[in-house]
Design goal:
The protein is an alpha+beta fold. It contains eleven helices and 20 strands. The strands form five sheets. Strands 7-10-11-20-19-18-15-13 form an eight-stranded mixed β-sheet, with helices on both faces. Strands 1-2-3-5-4 form a five-stranded mixed beta barrel. The radius of gyration is 27 Å and the shape is elongated. The structure holds aspartic acid (ASP).
């Protein structure tokens, strides 16, 4: 195992260390060869004297090992751009662990200027660029921070299945054919919505998960077929309890990792959906006072969303959030009265969290009265048979002492991209896909063998492109 990282030179002046890393840059000054050695913790300058002949053979991205003395640089040669800039390593030896071909993409730039599909194809190299390495490292720290925060608030982290059944979040499902049940399919979860609600029935009370969600949506802007949510569900809570929790989490997170960033308003403003639509004609307004300042964070909650919206393609009323959201009605009778007079006017206990013009979270208090829930499914155009097939599990579960509950989910890729001042979420996802859902690195999706298809009872109707 590696004993020292590059960053450790800072605390080891005057000592000899063994270092391992990649050649980030190289300057051959005849007698002396200078390289910048890089690992994930940073870069440091190494000086090879003429006695170390091999140094002449070093090229970019060679992986090397060396022993060297950590020394102060002469004052006029200090490099203020790097953390180790006051020091350098006087190499005593050199071992080339592994050579590198000439690189298909440069790594010493920000990378934004490079064709993105090529960056994705060579992601394992692209991630070596310091900006991308930083994104990977901060993501890890932030996920840990969130886990610690949630545990400190008495939440239980629970993993829910990926091979699942369709849960409506308004997108198309990714389906996985079953070998054992011919013609039957699992759906990858669009979110763990039903599972987390069932965990409330199970008495877990406070659930969270760093959850992968899968939505087969047509290429639309900055989306990914799979993305990561901080998913939360809580029993015995009001809307305010949920919003206060997520607000505290993000305030703490920004304070810890981005102390130079300014949250525009604390507490986060809580704005009515209808007012916001009237004023900004958007349910995710960018409320920054100075939109040119990348360090301004304008969080806000949008509350009192409508329960239903008309879906013209399917000629039916659909839930704005999802059908498990509680409408602002007294009882089933009041629900039907409101629905029959004007469905578009019914409000829901639904809220979104917006940040700088992006939706970064959404959730609701849930309907736990099975009669009311069934009425909502009906209002959305499901006939009784469909309701039984799609939702029997939750309707039945709610007949066994269901606690009132609510929750929220926050899109972590988006939050990270905004906090890291990245232009899109692909920059904070290690192995993203293109807008078409193609993975250039793995060349996926890809064809499978006839044998596999046969096992899955599938015949492909191939249309020539
Ligand atoms: N499952 C919802 C979503 O993914 C969030 C929630 O209602 O808790 O948007």
């Amino acid at each position: 195992m590696k004993k020292y990282n590059v960053i450790d030179v800072l605390s080891n002046e005057g000592k000899e260390l063994e270092l391992i890393g990649w050649v980030d840059s190289r300057r051959d000054h005849g007698k002396l060869v200078f390289i910048d050695l890089r690992d994930r913790t940073g870069i440091v300058q190494i000086v090879f004297g003429p006695e170390i002949l091999e140094a002449k053979n070093l090229r970019l991205e060679y992986l090397i090992k060396l022993n060297g003395l950590v020394k102060k640089r002469p004052a006029n040669l200090v490099n203020p751009k790097i953390k180790t800039g006051e020091l350098e390593i006087e190499a005593k030896n050199l071992e080339i662990i592994s050579k590198s071909h000439e690189l298909p993409i440069p790594l010493d730039t920000s990378g934004y200027e490079i064709n993105e599909e090529i960056r994705m194809k060579y992601r394992y190299l692209d991630l070596r660029r310091s900006r991308m390495t930083q994104n990977v490292l901060i993501r890890s720290k932030i996920i840990k921070f969130i886990r610690d925060f949630m545990h400190s608030r008495d939440f239980v982290e629970v993993e829910t299945p990926i091979l699942s059944k369709s849960t409506p979040e308004g997108a198309r499902d990714y389906l996985v054919p079953s070998r054992i049940f011919p013609g039957n399919f699992y759906a990858l979860p669009q979110s763990p919505q039903q599972y987390k609600q069932l965990l409330m029935v199970a008495g877990i009370e406070k659930y969270f998960q760093i959850a992968k969600c899968f939505r087969d949506e047509d290429t639309r802007g900055d989306r990914q077929p799979e993305f990561t949510q901080l998913d939360i569900e809580m029993s015995f809570v009001s809307e305010d309890d949920v919003l206060n929790l997520i607000e505290e989490l993000y305030i703490e997170l920004v304070k810890t990792f981005y102390p130079h960033k300014k949250i525009q308003k604390i507490p986060f403003p809580r704005l009515n959906y209808h007012d916001v639509m009237e004023k900004y004609n958007s349910d995710k307004p960018d409320l920054r006072e100075d939109k040119n300042n990348p360090d301004e964070l304008a969080f806000a909650f949008i509350v009192n969303f409508p329960m239903f919206e008309w879906k013209e393609t399917e000629k039916r009323w659909d839930a704005v959030h999802h059908p498990f959201t509680k409408p602002q009605v007294r009882d089933v009778q009041d629900f039907w009265n409101q629905f029959n007079s004007d469905p578009s006017k019914m409000l829901a206990h639904q809220y979104d969290l917006v940040l700088n013009g992006y939706e970064v979270g959404g959730g609701s208090i849930r309907t736990t009265d099975p009669e009311l829930l069934e009425a909502i499914f009906k209002a959305m155009g499901n006939d009784p048979k469909e309701i039984k097939v799609k939702f029997n599990q939750i309707l039945e579960a709610f007949r066994y002492g269901v606690p009132p509950h609510g929750g929220i989910a926050s899109g972590l890729d988006r939050v990270l991209a905004i906090l890291q001042n990245e232009p899109n979420i692909r920059e904070v996802i290690v192995f993203p896909k293109t807008g078409e859902g193609y993975d250039p690195l793995m060349d996926s999706p890809s064809e499978v063998s006839e044998e596999q298809l046969k096992e899955l009872h599938i015949k492909v109707d191939k249309k020539d492109k």
